[in-house]
Amino acid sequence: MRRLPIRSLAVLAAVGTLALTGCGTDTGDPGDRGDTTAATGAGRTIRAQKVMQLTKAHEETGMTLLEGPTFDEDGSLIVVDVTAPEGKPKVIRVDVGKKTSRAVRTDGQGAYTSAQFSPYDGRLYLTDYRGEIVSLARDGGDPRTFFSGEVDGAPMNPDDLAFDREGNLYVSDTRGLSEGKDQGRVVRIDRDGEKATVLADGLAATNGISFDVDYRGLWISELTQNRISYLGVDAKGAVTSRHTAIRVDGGIAQTDSIAVDADGNLYQGLHGRAAMVVYNQHGERLATVEVPGSAEGLESATNVAITPGGRKAYMTVSGPAGGYLYTFDALAEGVRQSNGG
């Protein structure tokens, strides 16, 4: 397995081309206005509200990067810090009501880029950008390597993941990003970890991945092309179709992780801007979720988890000012597709 220097890991894991130079340790408090909406020409603007700060920029890596929010069955929120060094919390459990947090995992190796609970065995699965997928018991103990090694003769750089109803994994592989080549893939791994199959390749730094509400296909964001593609799959995981679905006008920002709510709306995280754009399944832009004070040291809104059965959404936001949780009211209720990955 290829070992990357921490600079490359920070650049390539989940956020693409974020340069570490200039990422300081400023912990100033970003703006905190209420959750309000305003009409715009491209859907409404939703202003998110700060919940709490979780991390500061690490001296060892020069940054912090929160990802993979996912709710446990007890209502606590699990978040990962991609760039946390050895001895610092890499997996964090948050009580959003009490605004408290505690470390779940602090190992010295993993560069975890997403988290999600399996519907098959109930364990917490983490993608490790170094080339592995690991699982933990719900309390953070009993670590196991679920999958590692090459797929079709090439190592993976797993970024995000999605589960089907039976617990099989669908993984976005950002292979080729460091070389600037469109070698990204979507890989399906059987729930026992024994068989891995490439469903799609030639993608532009595959990042976000989520099933639609009917499990008929996968929404996939391609970071270096600022587009969302749709990959139709059948019940056995075979590909039935593939096309470019949405072209994201992000400017300097790039497409990061994806979540889907009960109405089928897509929440597209942005790297390079502390904001998230929301589309319906037909590609119409419905809203932009903005973080007030984002010019004060917050640079990316990578991912979101919507409370299962509710509309309260929690977004991971990071930058030189630190790693934060922000909240807003989603357009529809949360489902499995809007809870991690």
Summed up, the domain count is 1
**CATH 2nd-level architecture:** 6 Propeller
Uncertain segments of ≥5 residues (pLDDT<50)? 1-41
Order of helices and strands: HEEEEEEEEEEEEEEEEEEEEEEEEEEEE
Major β-sheet profile = 10 strands, mixed
- Global shape: globular
Assign the structural class, choosing from mainly alpha, mainly beta, alpha/beta, alpha+beta, or little secondary structure. mainly beta
Fold-level CATH name:
Neuraminidase
Reading off the top of the CATH hierarchy, the class is best stated as Mainly Beta
> Over the alpha carbons, how many angstroms does the gyration radius reach?
18 Å
> CATH homologous superfamily?
TolB, C-terminal domain
Q: Beta-sheet strand percentage?
A: over 45%
Would you mind describing this structure in some detail?
The strands form six sheets. Strands 1, 2, 3, 22, 23, 24, 25, 26, 27 and 28 form a ten-stranded mixed sheet that branches. A four-stranded antiparallel sheet has the order 4-5-6-7, with no helix packed on it. A four-stranded antiparallel sheet has the order 8-9-10-11, with no helix packed on it. The chain is globular. It has one helix at residues 6-12, and strands at 37-40, 43-47, 49-55, 66-71, 77-81, 91-95, 100-105, 112-117, 124-128, 132-136, 144-148, 150-151, 154-155, 158-163, 169-173, 184-189, 196-203, 206-211, 217-222, 227-233, 239-247, 254-260, 266-271, 275-279, 285-290, 300-306, 312-319, 322-329. The protein starts with 5 loop residues before the first helix and ends in a 12-residue tail after the last strand. 2% of the residues lie in helices and 48% in strands. The model is unreliable at 1-41 (pLDDT under 50). It has 341 residues and is an all-beta fold. The protein has one domain: 6 Propeller (Neuraminidase).
